[in-house]
Amino acid sequence: MGNANVSNVTIRPEEAAFFADLAKDWWNPKGKMASLHEVNPVRLGFIRSAIDAHWGGDERNIRPLKGKSALDIGCGAGLVCEPLARLGAEVTGVDAAADNVAAASAHAEASGLDIRYMAGEVAGLDIGTFDLVTALEVIEHVADKEAFLSDVTQRVAPGGLLVISTPNRTTASRLLLVGAAEAVGYVPKGTHHWDDFIMPEELDVMLSDFGFEVTKRQGIAWRPGKGLHLSDDESLNYIVSARRV
Predict the structure, then answer these.
(1) Which long-range contacts (CB under 8 A, 24 or more apart) does 172-176 make?
(2) What gap in Å lies between CA 162 and CA 181, rounded to an integer?
(3) 13-244: what CATH class?
(4) Full DSSP string of 100-127
């Protein structure tokens, strides 16, 4: 769920514990993490397009990450790691909650996928760098966002690709992602803390401080009849791809 540099732990213990309690239910599409199952195909669609754009790939290639390494930070129970493995990547998933890693490992083994999962703070793990690094719905859960991005960007290999998604800090997200979504049980109570949300412009500046530029940004919006989808509307969630300048 987060990471740290050597001297500054970024993950809040209560955040790791909160998501660890949900680990056993993570792969249930009708369970407490149903919202993740709904947004996952949308995020993966963006990631696939970003992969093809970054490496000049063919969208018809079913294994565009063959020969490449991928790291998913805050991997939960593996909802992103498994699709990345199926796209051909050698995948590592890291999460601060050991229960999440255990659930992820068990599911990958049952699915016949060879994925390396590790529990802990990414800065404290000797795992090197990766062609693709993803951190989806993670940065809003960490205490020190600059330290987190320092750790994340250091894991991107030269010529590599970074993808980050997070909620936007807007009136709409306060009302819908925190208020309404928790009130109706769409997400478990306590999932989101609005004050920790980051605006796109703020993320752009922080990434720039670490030598990265955003190459594409799209909103993740919702509307009746269409559900969650990539959009120009960034008022709730957004997802970005970035590369080292």
Answers:
(1) 172/235, 172/236, 173/197, 173/235, 173/236, 173/237, 176/236
(2) 28
(3) alpha beta
(4) HHHHHHHHHHHTT---EEEES-GGGS--
* pLDDT tens-digit map of 190-225: 556 778 899 999 999 999 999 999 999 999 998 888
pLDDT of residue 10: 61
Q: What distance in Å separates the CA atoms of residue 158 and residue 131, rounded to the nearest whole number? A: 8
Which tokens go with 244?
Answer: 């080292």
Residue 117 — φ and ψ, nearest 5°?
A: -115, 140
- Both tokens of residue 113? 């996928």
pTM for the full model? 0.86
Q: Would you say the C-alpha torsion 62, 113, 65, 30 has a positive or negative sign? A: positive
Lowest pLDDT segment from 16-20, 71-75, 115-119, 206-210 = 16-20
Domain coordinates in residue numbering, the chain:
13-244
Decide: 227 and 205 in contact? Cβ < 8 Å. no
